[in-house]
Amino acid sequence: MKILLAITGASGSIYGLRLLEELLRAGHQLTLVASESGLEVCRYETGIELTDAETLKQRWGLPEANLTIRAATDLWAPEASGSAAPEAMVIAPCSMGTVGRISAGISGNLIERAADVMLKEHRPLLLLPRETPFSTIHLENLLKLSRCGARIIPAMPGFYQKPETIDQLVDFVVGKMLDQLGVEHQLFKRWGTAD
Known about the structure:
The structure is a single chain. By secondary structure, this protein is of the alpha/beta class. It has one domain (2-181): Flavin prenyltransferase-like (Rossmann fold), CATH 3.40.50.1950. Helix content is 40%, strand content 16%. The model has no long low-confidence stretch (mean pLDDT 95).
């Protein structure tokens, strides 16, 4: 599957990185785009630079993985056109500023334009909002996007699998995103399954 993954400036870049790793391991064709603040937050939270595809692939021991990195300012990228749109797009984490601009139909950068394309082409658009608490404006924007076809997957880990590490909490949320993409995984134990 051809997937566009965007990382914006909300806290929680670990979710996007973990999803990127799982999708590359599963053999999907990934394009990564980070907003300017997404680059800064990821660097601050994880020490990871999102500017070089080869370095990221080597990080996970996946030199043959299909990963392209695009600048958020690149409105000439194929992903900005309905005729070359990816099969799915995920914004993880998704800042409330990004949510607001997408819900208003503003396409000021590649992330916003690609999200607009996904909505108009009725293709999967997954948003991982990472904010708390939500204001009424946040909730109204998320509801509007949900009504337009976006799937809202908040960073809310489950605890029935009795997580013991932060990685397990992250994997639960990433697993929920993979479920929405139809990608099989073993990131968490499903409710009602045997130990």
